[in-house]
């Protein structure tokens, strides 16, 4: 028994296709049955005799059964096996026609978006964030902007942007992360001023998610050290893992002193669920995830959530549509209703990376503005060295 595999194709709306699902072999057999010859089948299908004959022989070898019977002076006719194949197809089409038609209609509706100039699709790889999930729903309803959001660690999201697998990437840092910080060492190699631009998005609070009533009285990371409190962490490469390690370094707390530091979950929601299920006592995450699962929340730090894209993508219709959504009062009002979030002052605006991530400290002479594209002060005409004249004689 051979397995089936489905394919589909695009045809003009005016073209009528017999049958709901087409198969080249069954088309050949039907044409031979109706015309009584291979040459007649070739004419019906607008194919050459040689092609039809070759395909029938190929399928006989593939299926291990004779498809046609030729007798001298007689019209070609289907073998018993070929007849049963056509019969099986007609039976299946008759029984499954409602489901087949429904599937075809669903596919046509989905593809209709691709032919609608008012609809935009934007691929976004991003660190897990509840506001992005809410934005995806709002944008589709308000502006016909479909965000193809794929959540992953911040590092992987930025790599995907640089490899051309997405148009936007989402990552987050503490506000104005200091030079020499872990955030700089993690993200600076992946970002290039002048090549990348940041679109203002949101500010959110990260803190300790704890059981209702905070039974252990946790107020900060220092209480986790050598205390036996069961912590649940995020995986390497996630922005929250970078944030945690940054905070532990600032407070001089060794990772080995945190029970459960190596126990990781893939998202804020998964961390909250582990705590709600009693598998852990606390974990670092966003307030919205904690409240959604009936947990309490101890705020620790406010951070910026950044949307970054290539500078060359700013003029694309989908990116412009996203900026319009972000700057709308309806979206900003909806964002404010999410626990632990507030709108960035520059939401939807295009921002210089060096303004939000001050790791690129370009030294420049007084009165000479730095060029963000190169990190160097632009030369004045009188500062440029004169070009050497060629020693070779030229024509006058």
How would you characterize the overall build of this protein?
The protein has 396 residues and is α/β, with parallel strands linked by helices. It has two domains: 24-114, Winged helix-like DNA-binding domain superfamily/Winged helix DNA-binding domain (Arc Repressor Mutant, subunit A, Orthogonal Bundle), CATH 1.10.10.10; 120-356, D-Maltodextrin-Binding Protein, domain 2, CATH 3.40.190. 37% of the residues lie in helices and 18% in strands. The chain has 13 helices and twelve strands. The strands form two sheets. Strands 3, 4, 5, 6, 7, 8, 9, 10, 11 and 12 form a ten-stranded mixed β-sheet that branches. A two-stranded antiparallel ribbon has the order 1-2. Strand 1 (68-69) and strand 2 form a beta hairpin. Helix 1 packs across helix 2 and helix 2 packs across helix 3 (49-63).
